[in-house]
Design brief:
The complex is a heterodimer of chains A (353) and B (165). Chain A is of the alpha/beta class. Chain A is 33% helix and 24% strand. Chain A has a single domain, classed as Thiolase/Chalcone synthase (Peroxisomal Thiolase, Chain A, domain 1). Chain A has twelve helices and 14 strands. In chain A, the strands form three sheets. A nine-stranded mixed beta sheet of chain A has the order 5-4-6-7-1-8-13-12-11, with helices on both faces. The chains are: A alpha/beta (353), B alpha+beta (165).
Chain lengths: 353, 165
């Protein structure tokens, strides 16, 4: 348990406008897209516009968070952006985001990378800095515009989106009671320097990777917090597809009702570093004061970060209606053909470019 | 565009940073060194103060671009508009996240943060403001201080008879 109370002061999420269905992708590659979508429990996935990337998504999410929480950007002491699709190999995403929200120059900023859990790692870093009173507010962002290789199974789920959390000591809408991590060297998914698309170990990404890490981390978090699944109103897991979180949730003893708001991937796809954070944002959009939330992120390579969270009564007066709530992103979107999707995602090789 | 030139323009491109004449309160975007509205321009010397636009606005006029500027080829056709801000300045910007048939004069918009262009595959990526539709209760569209008709009328009155951006 934390000696100094820290938690979430504000939050915001952003998902690009366009959507594509597994059926649309499948018909190009001669596969049964509908069956693929059903197997993954993905109805559609988001697609970024040609002028959107991890930096623009992070900025939009954080601007919503700062406005909702009425936070002075100059009170932010740290911004960490977790992503595996930073636009630059060398030059931080976080500095652009910091400048774009007016938080510069007196803050520290850095980019985090740990496959899909870089955003939750950023939360833990902010918690430590806030609790030790190094800073007043820390910003943790998880955002991605990841891609799967054309025709690969990943292409049916890899999408774009992100969320930003402002971590602080006062005016909390949710207290983070405790956090725990579970980390091993497990090569289930990777992308080598210079490679455009990631590689993965197929079925190896399941049992020894996602299920072991999320399961062990979630169980240990509940041991440390002295809680059981029935003590939580909501649970959020990392969600590379819609099936994995349902399966791990069931095996840990959670019901579908507890997973209802935390599961967003079926309607927007796998937003990688953004996935668990957008799920948490959706929970906070619907939560009541006193609700308890278990969050378990996962990143390939591999590791899990878990958080035991209690929503405070302040959520009732918090301006969560400002800006789009997550449900609007889940319901909305403009459908794209595969041709337009390929154009927007740069999958078409243009001569000379 | 050189790296140094874009870097100098970062405050206005990222955050709509303009300035305001402290003598007559006229707002300028991009910022000006002196206020051309004041009868004696020298009165404003040293009195131009930084002022950040809210990001709210209304479509004053627009056009559909079919022959793209360099770097915008992937977005054709796209909407380029003049945006009337409640603070006074008239801005030029692209409207994104909208179907072409939905654009109309008087439509409320809100500044969005987007990628503007890239200096080739190895060069710097330039970011800045574009605009997206504003709705009563949504997204970045839901704004803390929506554009009121009164604010627009005041801005129009201030703008009359002055030649400024």
């Amino acid at each position: 348990m934390m000696e100094q109370t820290v938690g979430i002061v504000s939050y915001g999420a952003y998902v690009p406008r366009y959507r594509i269905t597994p059926q649309e992708i499948g018909q190009v590659w001669g596969t049964d897209g509908a069956a693929m979508g059903k197997g993954l429990n993905v109805v559609r996935k988001s697609v970024p516009s040609p002028d959107e990337d991890t930096i623009t998504i992070s900025t939009e999410a954080l601007r919503i968070a700062l406005t909702r929480g009425r936070i002075n950007p100059h009170d932010i002491g740290a911004i960490y952006v977790g992503s595996e699709s930073h636009p630059y190999a060398v030059k931080p995403t976080a500095t652009v985001v910091a400048q774009a929200v007016g938080a510069t120059p007196y803050l520290t900023a850095a980019d985090f990378e740990f496959a899909c859990k870089a955003g939750t790692a950023a939360i833990q870093t902010c918690m430590g800095m806030v609790a030790s009173r190094m800073i007043t507010y820390g910003v943790a962002i998880g955002a991605d515009t990841s891609q799967g290789a054309p025709g690969d199974a990943l292409e049916y789920s890899a999408s774009a989106g992100g969320a930003a959390l402002v971590i602080g000591r006062e005016n909390l809408i949710a207290e983070i009671n405790a956090t725990e991590s579970f980390t091993t060297d497990t090569p289930d998914f990777w992308r080598r320097e210079g490679q455009r698309y990631p590689s993965h170990g197929g079925r190896f990404t399941g049992e020894p990777a996602y299920f072991r890490h999320v399961g062990e981390c979630g169980r240990r978090m509940m041991e440390l917090a002295q809680t059981e699944p029935k003590d939580y109103q909501h649970v959020v897991f990392h969600q590379p597809n819609g099936k994995f979180p349902q399966r791990i949730g069931k095996s840990l003893g959670f019901s579908e009702a507890q997973m209802k708001y935390g599961l967003v991937t079926p309607w927007i796809g796998n937003t990688y570093s953004g996935a668990a954070l957008i799920g948490l944002a959706n929970v906070l959009d619907h939560a009541k004061g006193g609700d308890r939330v278990l969050v378990v992120g996962y990143g390939s390579g591999a590791g899990s970060d878990a958080f035991d969270v209690t929503v405070t009564d302040r959520i009732e007066s918090y301006d969560r209606n400002h800006g789009r709530q997550v449900q609007e992103f889940l319901d909305g979107g403009v459908p794209l053909s595969y041709a337009m999707y390929a154009k927007y995602r740069g999958k078409i090789h243009l001569g000379g470019s | 565009m050189t790296v140094a030139r874009f870097w100098r323009e970062t405050p206005r491109r990222y955050n709509l940073g303009g300035n305001r004449c402290s003598a007559c309160t006229t707002v300028y975007f991009p910022p000006r060194a002196v206020c051309p509205t004041c009868q004696k321009h020298r009165q404003s010397l040293g009195k131009m103060e930084p002022f950040t636009l809210s990001g709210d606005g209304e479509v004053f006029s627009f056009t559909l671009v079919h022959e793209a500027a360099e770097g915008f080829e992937m977005q054709v056709p796209y909407v380029l508009a003049l945006i009337k801000t409640p603070e006074g300045p008239l801005l030029t910007g692209q409207i994104v996240d909208i179907s072409l048939e939905e654009v109309h004069i008087g439509m409320r918009v809100r500044a969005a943060f987007r990628k503007l262009r890239e200096d080739g595959r190895a060069g710097v990526i330039h970011y800045g403001y574009k605009f997206s539709p504003a709705r009563e209760n949504g997204g970045r569209e839901a704004v803390a201080s929506p554009v009121s008709q009164e604010a627009l009328a005041r801005a129009a009155a201030r703008a009359q008879g002055t030649a400024r951006t």
